[in-house]
Design brief:
The chain is α+β, with helices and mostly antiparallel strands and 87 residues long. It has three helices and four strands; from the N terminus they run E-H-E-H-E-E-H.
């Protein structure tokens, strides 16, 4: 089953609002393909960064899908953002 799984392309969003969400709500923002679902995105983030996702909100806007990923309080989102070069 693992061989059938393909990598999901997720691009971190680096805007002023995204940085405020990192600092105030421990939330990362990603843009992804319109065909991916929440469960796929959650699993990909948890495996990629070795973190626990607390909740996720998804927004479709102008043919693009944005995911707002709130991390567990034990994992600061700012650490992940630093690894990604966002901050």
């Amino acid at each position: 089953m693992e061989n059938e799984r393909e990598k999901i392309r997720m691009r971190p969003i680096i805007t002023e609002k995204a940085v405020m969400l990192i600092e105030s709500q421990n939330t990362l923002t990603f843009q992804t393909g319109i065909g991916t679902n929440k469960e796929q995105m959650k699993r990909e983030i948890e495996e990629m960064f070795s973190v626990k996702v607390e909740s996720m909100r998804v927004m479709n806007k102008k043919g693009k899908k944005y995911a707002y990923v709130k991390l567990n309080a034990k994992t600061p989102a700012i650490d992940i953002a630093t690894k990604l070069g966002m901050i």
